[in-house]
């Protein structure tokens, strides 16, 4: 099923939740000199013009990144300020005109010793990705674009030639089978690279299929699993659609939970009076 195109939702509250986490994780990892391989299993595009037909149709970015962008001069949280500064570097003017996709968040700070592999199965989205630059100028050789199944590609890519590896898994979850497919792929991946840092985004939907997925992870034998969920409204009051966004991080860098928790608490008031952040260690040591 290849109907999903993220351009319709670019910059929404779930993107903000996800990409603040992605930025923070990669920031921690890039502080060490040893090389790292980043893998993006469901890449989408490198960036999204907010005036494009798809993005302008729903304008979900107005309740997501735009609210943070409009208040950036009043923010006092270091992580949010750094994150917005990164977005500003992508703009051609002082206005918010483009929102970066996950390949850019993983690739825009790559060093010579690092590499990035991005998978995209949708032919149209892969074409867009192939036409964009998501790594620093002169670092094109460290980027590999693959038109194919990202979950299978992740497992095949491990172990990597670099001493460290970090993967972002961000499916559309249009099919209910994707929840189990994600679990199976991550368990296989962790068997091949127990040290891997893995980030998984998942939607909070009324059907509640993410609960079984999280329970499976909790009993999988994988250690060090932390999760963060942003709820726009109380559970159960939304009859249709996504009421929240979830991030699961395996082997999170030390201090990530506190750093993200502080940033998300600063952001919550912009989402509305009923918004809340809940986080916990699904599995500790």
What level of helicity do the residues show? 25-40%
Q: Distance N terminus to C terminus?
A: 38 Å
Query: How many distinct domains?
Result: 1
Strand order of the largest sheet: 5-4-1-6-7-9-8-10
Overall pLDDT, averaged?
94
Low-confidence stretches: none
Q: Write the CATH homologous superfamily.
A: Vaccinia Virus protein VP39
Proportion of beta-strand residues:
15-25%
Please state the structural category.
alpha/beta
Q: Total strand count, please?
A: 10
Helices and strands, in order, run as HEEHHHEHEHEHEHEHEEHE
CATH-defined architecture: 3-Layer(aba) Sandwich
What is the count of DSSP helices, taking H or I runs of 4+ residues? 10
Task: Tell me, briefly, the overall form.
Answer: globular
What oligomeric arrangement do these chains adopt? Answer: single chain
InterPro entries: RlmJ, SAM-dependent_MTases_sf
GO molecular function, one term: RNA binding
Keywords: Methyltransferase, RNA-binding, rRNA processing, S-adenosyl-L-methionine, Transferase
Family: Belongs to the RlmJ family.
């Amino acid at each position: 099923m290849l109907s999903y195109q993220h351009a319709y939702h670019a910059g929404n509250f779930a993107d903000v939740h996800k990409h603040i986490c992605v930025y923070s994780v990669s920031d921690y990892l890039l502080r060490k000199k040893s090389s790292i391989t980043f893998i993006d299993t469901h890449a989408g595009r490198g960036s999204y013009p907010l005036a494009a037909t798809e993005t302008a149709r729903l304008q979900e970015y107005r309740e997501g990144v735009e609210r943070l962008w409009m208040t950036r001069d009043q923010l006092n949280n270091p992580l949010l300020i750094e994150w917005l500064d990164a977005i500003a570097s992508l703009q051609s003017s002082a206005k918010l005109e483009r929102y970066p996709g996950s390949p850019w968040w993983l690739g825009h700070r790559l060093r010579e010793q690092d590499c990035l592999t991005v998978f995209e199965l949708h032919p149209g989205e892969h074409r867009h990705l192939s036409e964009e630059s998501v790594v620093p100028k002169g670092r094109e050789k460290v980027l590999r674009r693959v038109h194919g199944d990202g979950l299978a590609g992740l497992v095949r890519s491990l172990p990597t030639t670099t001493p460290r590896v970090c993967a972002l898994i961000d499916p559309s979850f249009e099919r209910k089978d994707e929840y189990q497919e994600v679990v199976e792929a991550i368990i296989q991946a962790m068997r091949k690279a127990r040290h891997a840092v893995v980030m998984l985004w998942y939607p909070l939907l009324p059907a509640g299929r993410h609960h079984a997925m999280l329970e499976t992870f909790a009993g999988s034998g994988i250690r060090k699993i932390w999760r963060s969920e942003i709820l726009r409204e109380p559970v159960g009051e939304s009859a249709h659609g996504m009421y929240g966004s979830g991030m699961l991080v395996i082997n999170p860098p030390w201090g990530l939970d506190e750093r993200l928790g502080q940033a998300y608490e600063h952001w919550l008031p912009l989402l509305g009076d009923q918004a809340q952040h809940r986080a916990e260690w699904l599995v500790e040591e």
